[in-house]
C-alpha cells in the first residue's frame, strides 16, 4: 500500500479557512491547533498556515487583552478577491494603453526610415564620417601636451607646488630652531632623528 501523500500548503490553507467559514466564530491559536488535525493539518504547522492567511488578508487577527483572536468570514475572501481582481484589471488597462502608445511611437519612428538606396548611401556616409571623426580625435590627443590651456594649467600647478615646498621648508627650519632652543642637551639625538626622516644639512629653499 502506497504511503498517503501529505497536504500541500495551499490545501492546508483551504482546510484551515473552512474551519473559520463553517463556524464563523473567533478562535485562539491553541484552539486552531486542536481543530487543525481534524482537517488533516498537523498542529505543528497550524501557526505558519494561519499566519500565511493573515498575510494575504484572508484571516483577520486582533489582540484583546492578553489574548490574540483569529477570525474570517466568507465575505473577507470575497472582498480580498474583488480587490485583487480590480487591481489586475487596472494594471491590464494601463499596460494595454502603454502598448498602444509604444506601437504608435514605433510606427512614427519608422516613417522616413524606409529601406531605400538613398538611405543606404546616407548610412554609409555617416559611418565614414564617424570613423574620420574618431581618427581625428585620436590624432588630436597626441598634441594634448602642446595645448596652450594644458601648459598654462601645468605652470599654475608648478607655482603652487613651488610655493608649498618653500613653505614646508620654512616650517622645518622653524621647528628645528625651536627644538634646538628648548632641548640643547638633545642636539645629537635631534640630528639623528632629522636624518632618519630625510632632513639633511643641504636642505634649502627652492
Automatic annotation (TrEMBL):
Give the keywords, sorted. Coiled coil, DNA recombination, Meiosis, Nucleus
- Where does this protein have coiled-coil stretches? 85-146
Give all residue intervals belonging to the Mnd1 HTH domain: 16-74
Q: Where does the UniProt entry say this protein principally localizes? A: nucleus
Task: Name the InterPro entries for this protein.
Answer: LZ3wCH, Mnd1, Mnd1_HTH
One GO cellular-component annotation of the UniProt record comes to: nucleus
Pfam families referenced in this protein's UniProt entry, alphabetically? LZ3wCH, Mnd1
Location of this chain's protein in the cell: Nucleus
In the record, biological process GO terms are:
reciprocal meiotic recombination
Cite the Leucine zipper with capping helix domain residue spans from the record: 150-206
Do the record's keywords include Magnesium? no
Alphabetically, the GO molecular function entries are: double-stranded DNA binding
Role description: Required for proper homologous chromosome pairing and efficient cross-over and intragenic recombination during meiosis.
Name the family: Belongs to the MND1 family.
The record's section on PANTHER family has:
MEIOTIC NUCLEAR DIVISION PROTEIN 1 HOMOLOG
Q: What is this protein called?
A: Meiotic nuclear division protein 1 homolog
